[in-house]
Amino acid sequence: MLLFCDIVILKVFCDNVSMRKEEINMTKRELQKLIIIQKTIERKLIVREAAQALGLSERQIFRLKKGVSEQGESFVIHKNKGRKPANATPPEVVNKVIYLKQNVYFDANFSHFRDLLEEREGIILSQPTVYRILSSAGIESHRKHRKTHKIHKRRKRKPQAGMLVQIDCSPFEWLPNMGKLALHGAIDDATGQVLGLYLTENESMEGYFEVMRQVFTQYGIPIALYSDRHTIFASPKKNKLSIEEQLEGKMANQTQFERAMSELGISMIYASSPQAKGRVEKLWDTLQDRLKVELRLAGIDSTEKANEFLKEFLIRFNAKFAVEPEDPIPAFRDLPSNVDLDNILCIKETRMVDNGGVFSFKGDYYQLIDEKGKIIPVPPRSKIIVLLNSRIGIRVQYGNQVFAVQKLDERPKKLQKTIQSTSSSKSKAHKPASNHPWKQNGTSTSLYWWEEYDRELIKSLYDSTCAWR
């Protein structure tokens, strides 16, 4: 170990040598190394003490002693000092990176900007290099100043893809100068893979139906869906039933979305807070940074173009952010070939046909027709199910079949009941006889009359003693 006096001597010597700092261009670390090596050469320090002071091995001390003795003080200076690194970023690339960040990709964060440089500009740089270039130019990432949120306990991922799919919607200014639009999405809990995205003007059942259509056609039917308690997913009366009502078997009506998922055998799970479905909430945080920039760079100016762009965007996004599940065998079920999603992902309402096979729906009147346009006879007062969505318009399910409909121009008139006569001639009105009571002009007539033998019978009964007992 160094003595106290040796440390003082070292400090004084270091100060003296630092007067020649500009001449030999040494760092403080190199000066300290030179002083200790010189004291080792002068036998004021032993090799073990010098190794402890410099944090080097004894073998390195022997090598430094020999080098300083033979080549002088410059031996302790690193040989690459003053040389340009072989992997240094060329100045023209640095200038181009700064220009692109300030003028083209100004709204991208540093990580996304690095990806855009590689994908769109062919400039491959590491993220630390991009950060160093931009920071030295005084450019800061807009994510740096974001407010930190309370940290919640992370829930373990499901082991298989398709066991749990989280769905949600994010209102945000996704497209320039179009205000807030609603982006509906679904993400797999096990892999973090985005299974579907669909953009509409407002959060709607149709948006969720289109997202689930993407999930079913591309991946299959999941076991369960995890959502919030929006009225699209759950009835407001679902948790308001009393214990007595539940014991009586009363249940809240299913929403159209809940009914569609139950037809496909999918369970619905409802989250009590946004933090409970953290995967999809984190997805919105990432997409609000990346997708908005991508849509602007692609020149997207309508929801229709955006939904077409999202198909290609999802491939690149999942390739970067999706992870491998614990169990490689997915839990998705194949969509049966005989299932028509248009007849499930729709609004279903019950109606009753009248005597003419006509039913009313939203103020209009319709009849069932087959593929050839022929009217389908339906018994009066039969119940039918009306199917409605933007893809198929209006269809009707009667029995196990689904039929098209034709709209009537006007409301059908009620059928008049007609009485058919048995004879071809019209019946004549009946005239009462002249002695009919109605023709007596108010004269009173006896309501009863009898023959003479009836009078004798009555008299005998009257005189009988039995009648007066």
Automatic annotation (TrEMBL):
Gene3D superfamilies cross-referenced by the UniProt entry: Ribonuclease H-like superfamily/Ribonuclease H
Example of a GO biological process term: DNA integration
Listed GO MF terms: nucleic acid binding
The organism's place on the tree of life at top rank: Bacteria
Protein name: Integrase core domain-containing protein
Domain spans labelled Integrase catalytic: 155-338
Region of interest (Disordered), ranges: 414-439
PANTHER family noted in UniProt: INTEGRASE PROTEIN, TRANSPOSASE RV3428C-RELATED
Bias (Low complexity): 417-426
InterPro entries in alphabetical order: Homeodomain-like_sf, Integrase_cat-core, ISNCY_transpos, RNaseH-like_sf, RNaseH_sf
UniProt organism field: Caldanaerobius fijiensis DSM 17918
